[in-house]
């Protein structure tokens, strides 16, 4: 199964309507999910809040905001992501990232910037405790029995008692278990420090690769490390990240490269050309088992996303390489991922009894 996703990033755009419009366009093309970046390093709207606004205006497409694990409280992060999953009825993801600069650290004033390796280790612990907190409510913990006045069966709430290197969390969560069980966790695994975190905790790993060989090598490494962590490598989706500039229309392709791309740039691998040649590139990389799909960032958001959906995606659908409708309703279903079992089900509960 080919997986396709796109970024909604629009520098200096604060109007929610523009994000809704792009998300609906991506949904019309059947894309698995859209992402929205966020960082403390520059001004911009809160990605999770924006996609919470997009959620009721869409019905099928996955919504994946970037939420940093640095300088934030793990308990609040997991609750916010779980809330997005409820608001979207099971379409939430979470792109995990870290904040590396001293300028970002000064915004909070609690600690100095830390080495990248330490930050990604912390990110892994946040991903771990988030999953535990999502499981701290069993699926049927809510009774909602009006005649008896019982709302929660406390036998089905659980302490997580997590002790990490930088924080500890007792739990349980304040939000019931999300519709997906665990919202989808996404990590950019291009850099080595993030790769182990992706292999251990991510459902989707993004790789910025300018050549098929580079993408294939990273995918193989991620799958091997996932196996070392006791995971089934087939539960990890690896998508190639490309910046796409479709402004050249049907510009002729150079040999072996649709539209002369991808080419390595300061912003990452760039494809510049027409929608048809991009479809050829996507089809070739996927057919050879190089990646499980693509995450595409439009150079010019509205123009390029429209050409992507109406050109590239339509051509892939016509060839039977990409779906023409959503077979399910949740992001996990789009990605072919099972809903995780609750790790605490049947274990000792918070207090016992019901309230």
Short description:
This protein is an alpha/beta fold. It contains ten helices and 14 strands.
Structure description:
An eight-stranded parallel beta barrel has the order 1-2-3-4-9-10-11-14, surrounded by eight helices. It is globular. The protein has 355 residues and is an alpha/beta fold. α7 (212-228) links the parallel β10 (204-207) and β11. The protein has helices spanning 16-28, 47-54, 74-87, 102-108, 116-134, 192-201, 212-228, 275-287, 301-318, 331-335, and strands spanning 3-7, 33-36, 62-68, 93-97, 142-145, 150-152, 162-163, 168-169, 184-188, 204-207, 237-245, 263-265, 268-272, 293-298. It is built from ten helices and 14 strands.
Descriptive terms for the model:
10 helices, two-stranded antiparallel ribbon, alpha/beta, 355 residues, 18% strand, single chain
Q: Biggest β-sheet: count, sense, barrel?
A: 8 strands, parallel, barrel
The first-to-last residue Cα distance is 46 Å
**Oligomeric assembly:** single chain
Structural class: alpha/beta
Low-confidence stretches: 252-257
**Which strand order do you get reading across the main beta sheet?**
1-2-3-4-9-10-11-14
Helix percentage range: 25-40%
Number of strands: 14
* Arithmetic mean of pLDDT: 93
Number of DSSP helical runs: 10
| Binned strand content | 15-25%
H/E element sequence: EHEHEHEHHEEEEEHEHEEEHEHH
